[in-house]
């Protein structure tokens, strides 16, 4: 776990996007790609379990590995409307379930053939050499510059990728003082795969000899759209858009870093080989921000039990009885559960409200009226296990008489009444589903 710093241009949303953040990172080093892929998959299984524990809807998406590179990577996102990333999820959840970053997915080619667009749009850019790059793509679709770059056919000049056509063409046609430069410049035409003979092209806007144009065809230049056939299951499913908040990333790096850094070993045959690497990160502070944002309600925070700073607040009447001291001792023995006994000067109502606003999943109220029954209120959300069942219910059926355990609902809040001698056993049962 590390503090990291990034020269973030637009710090915002508190912990979600800051210049300083806490990150959990890990690296794997293996002797060959087979074992490196095993490490990668093992780590992905661990990440799956970690994200499952937060009980929130998450998406493991095929990612564009961007500046870190490598052959294979996954982005781990919480699904939520406030997310900044756009993901596609295939609606054929049983057989496919593909999830991918919009920057990783190309529209489907059916039987190797792309659909033919009726009409193409053109966008003009300049290369670093000053050549004119004319990009043709189906009208109404979104061009993605990263796709152009990954085709590796031209080096786009970033200053000239989003200027109006007239300015680009003007710049392209500007002659040097002796008037010679134009003849050394070229025109490169890039055609999306859906732009085919039969597609209506816009007129070429300047006078330029066709013989000096270079054309590349059948390229993947546009983004998929919601409702498109899914390319992963060959059109059995359709793509749905989801917003995601990225909180983790796993990369298979291969020798991308070990080679330039000469991280190597000598194998059994005496040959020098580079380590095969993986790297894995969870943005811990970002994760906290994202979960807070996704789970909060009108009253305040509402943490899942696994990430709550405390799982329980104990609120007692002014005159604690010996049974209470014993209960607190038994709670202290539960090593994986953190709780507080609120000893502030607030009244019982004030203590209850404070704990709820902080998002602590459970409040235990030990008052005078019902004693020896104590009341456990649920602030946290409850989620069923994968089989759709709730853990505590089985135990409830078994023990309700012995433990004097009953469940009531008051103004939308679920409350459990239980004999003080068994209250410490009910707490972990309730937390399991929260
Ligand atoms: Zn699919």
How does the major sheet shape up?
8 strands, antiparallel
Approximately what portion of the residues adopt beta-strand conformation? 25-35%
Give the C-level CATH assignment of the largest domain: Alpha Beta
Shape: elongated
N to C succession of SSEs: EEHEEEEEEHHEEEEEEHEHEHEEHEEH
Number of strands: 20
Uncertain segments of ≥5 residues (pLDDT<50)?
A: 65-70
What is this structure's SSE topology?
Layout lengths: L1 E4 L14 E11 L2 H21 L4 E5 L9 E8 L5 E6 L8 E3 L18 E7 L5 E7 L6 H7 L13 H9 L13 E6 L20 E7 L19 E16 L9 E3 L5 E3 L1 E8 H12 L16 E5 L5 H11 L6 E3 L6 H10 L4 E5 L6 E6 L12 H9 L6 E5 L2 E7 L3 H10 L2
Parallel strand pairs: 8-9, 9-10, 15-16, 15-17
Antiparallel strand pairs: 1-2, 2-14, 3-4, 4-11, 5-6, 5-11, 7-8, 11-14, 12-13, 17-18, 18-20, 19-20
Bound molecules: zinc ion.
Zinc ion binds next to loops.
Please summarize what this structure is.
The protein has helices spanning 33-53, 145-151, 165-173, 284-295, 322-332, 348-357, 391-399, 423-432; strands spanning 2-5, 20-30, 58-62, 72-79, 85-90, 99-101, 120-126, 132-138, 187-192, 213-219, 239-254, 264-266, 272-274, 276-283, 312-316, 339-341, 362-366, 373-378, 406-410, 413-419. The chain is α+β, with helices and mostly antiparallel strands and 434 residues long.
What does it look like?
- The protein has helices spanning 33-53, 145-151, 165-173, 284-295, 322-332, 348-357, 391-399, 423-432; strands at 2-5, 20-30, 58-62, 72-79, 85-90, 99-101, 120-126, 132-138, 187-192, 213-219, 239-254, 264-266, 272-274, 276-283, 312-316, 339-341, 362-366, 373-378, 406-410, 413-419.
- It is built from 8 helices and 20 strands.
- The strands form 4 sheets. Strands 1, 2, 3, 4, 5, 6, 11 and 14 form an 8-stranded antiparallel sheet that branches. The protein has a 6-stranded mixed sheet with strand order 16-15-17-18-20-19, sandwiched between helices. It has a 4-stranded mixed sheet with strand order 7-8-9-10.
- The protein has 3 domains: 2-104 and 227-294, Bira Bifunctional Protein, Domain 2 (BirA Bifunctional Protein, domain 2, 2-Layer Sandwich); 120-219, no CATH class; 312-432, Anticodon-binding domain (Rossmann fold), CATH 3.40.50.800.
- It is α+β, with helices and mostly antiparallel strands and 434 residues long.
- The chain is 21% helix and 29% strand.
- The model is unreliable at 65-70 (pLDDT under 50).
- The two termini are 26 Å apart.
- Zinc ion binds next to loops.
């Amino acid at each position: 776990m590390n503090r990291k710093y990034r020269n973030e241009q637009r710090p915002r949303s508190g912990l979600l996007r800051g210049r300083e953040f806490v990150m959990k990172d890990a690296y794997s080093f293996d002797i060959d790609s087979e074992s490196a892929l095993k490490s990668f998959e093992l780590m992905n299984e661990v990440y799956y379990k970690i994200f499952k524990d937060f009980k929130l809807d998450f998406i493991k998406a095929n990612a564009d590995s961007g500046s870190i590179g490598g052959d294979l990577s996954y982005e781990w996102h919480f699904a939520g409307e406030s997310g900044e990333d756009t993901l596609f999820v295939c609606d054929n959840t049983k057989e496919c379930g593909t999830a991918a970053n919009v920057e990783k997915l190309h529209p489907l080619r059916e039987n190797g053939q792309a659909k033919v667009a009726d009409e193409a749009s053109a966008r003009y850019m300049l290369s670093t050499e000053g050549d004119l790059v004319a990009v043709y793509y189906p009208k109404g679709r979104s061009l993605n510059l990263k796709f152009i770059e990954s085709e590796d056919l031209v080096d786009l000049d970033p200053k000239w990728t989003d200027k109006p056509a007239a300015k680009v063409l003007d710049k392209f046609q500007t002659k040097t003082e002796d008037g010679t430069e134009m003849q050394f410049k070229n025109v490169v035409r890039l055609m999306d795969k859906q732009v085919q003979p039969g597609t209506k092209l816009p007129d070429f806007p300047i006078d330029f000899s066709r013989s000096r144009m270079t054309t590349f065809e059948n390229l993947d230049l546009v983004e998929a759209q919601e409702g498109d056939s899914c390319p992963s299951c060959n059109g059995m499913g359709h793509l749905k858009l989801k917003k995601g908040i990225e909180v983790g990333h796993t990369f298979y790096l291969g020798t991308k870093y070990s080679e330039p850094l000469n991280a190597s070993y000598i194998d059994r045959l005496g040959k020098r080989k580079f380590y095969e690497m993986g790297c894995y990160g969870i943005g811990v502070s970002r994760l906290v921000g994202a979960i807070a944002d996704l789970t909060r309600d009108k009253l305040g925070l509402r943490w899942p039990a696994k990430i709550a700073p405390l799982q329980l607040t104990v609120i007692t009447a002014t005159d604690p009885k010996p049974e209470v001291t014993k209960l607190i001792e038994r709670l202290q023995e539960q090593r994986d559960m953190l709780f507080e006994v609120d000893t502030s000067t607030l009244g019982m109502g004030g203590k209850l409200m404070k704990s709820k606003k902080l998002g602590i999943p459970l409040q235990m109220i030990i008052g005078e009226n019902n004693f020896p029954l104590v009341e456990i209120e649920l602030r946290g959300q409850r989620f069923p296990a994968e089989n759709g069942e709730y853990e505590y219910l089985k135990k409830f059926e078994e023990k309700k008489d012995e433990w004097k355990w009953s469940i009531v609902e008051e103004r939308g809040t679920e409350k459990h009444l239980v004999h003080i001698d068994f209250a410490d056993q009910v707490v972990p049962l309730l937390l399991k589903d929260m």
